[in-house]
Design goal:
The protein is built from 7 helices and 5 strands; from the N terminus they run E-E-E-H-H-H-H-E-E-H-H-H. It has 185 residues and is an alpha+beta fold. The radius of gyration is 22 Å and the shape is globular.
């Protein structure tokens, strides 16, 4: 099965669409169509700069200190948890590099957050010498409970959308978040 779209060049808005076609003898072959996508422009950047703060301001809550919540996590703890996923593991060294902190500093955070039950640190399935950290269900609850975005306000915003529009909006946010991760790697 052929992929839907193949980037031609990471730095351009050009892609290749593989197509399966039959030759004159009935054999399946592959031909490619070059697709010039609409180039990104400054208006796209402006829209992100304009729209993101509107969402942030509408849903923002006051920051709370670690000792004043039942979750007992600081903003630094939350910055670590927000990068973790419940399904796919992340190597501590990669996270430390991404956050711009030393591995030993991250190790102390991991030990504390693991003790609180917010993350797990397990051997990699393919290479037991390497570790992977994952968010736990309790960690997801702590993250939600201490987020700078108020869950009640976010829910109210999402309720304003029709189910299909809500899925599109969440998909768009995921695409932006994934792209943001790629440029910071």
């Amino acid at each position: 099965m052929l992929p839907d779209l193949v980037p031609f060049d990471e730095l351009s808005d050009t892609s290749i669409i593989p197509q399966s076609v039959e030759d004159n003898q009935g054999h399946e072959t592959c031909s490619c169509v070059l697709l010039l996508l609409t180039p990104m422009n400054d208006d796209d950047v402006y829209e992100v700069q304009r729209l993101y703060p509107q969402i942030y301001i509408a849903c923002h809550t006051d920051h709370v200190r670690a000792v004043s919540t039942k979750w007992r996590i600081s903003s630094q703890d939350a910055a670590i948890l927000v990068h973790l996923d419940r399904e796919s593991g992340l190597r501590p060294r990669e996270l430390a590099k991404h956050l711009g902190i030393s591995s030993s500093t991250l190790s102390a955070y991991i030990a504390r957050l693991s003790e609180l039950g917010y993350l797990t640190s397990d051997p990699n399935k393919d290479d037991g010498r390497k570790r992977e950290i994952r968010l736990t269900e309790r960690g997801a609850e702590a993250l939600s409970g201490t987020s700078v975005l108020d869950a009640t306000r976010v829910k109210a915003v999402l309720k304003q959308l029709k189910p299909n529009d809500r899925k599109d909006a969440l998909r768009g946010l995921k695409l932006l978040a994934d792209a943001a991760k790629k440029i910071s790697e």
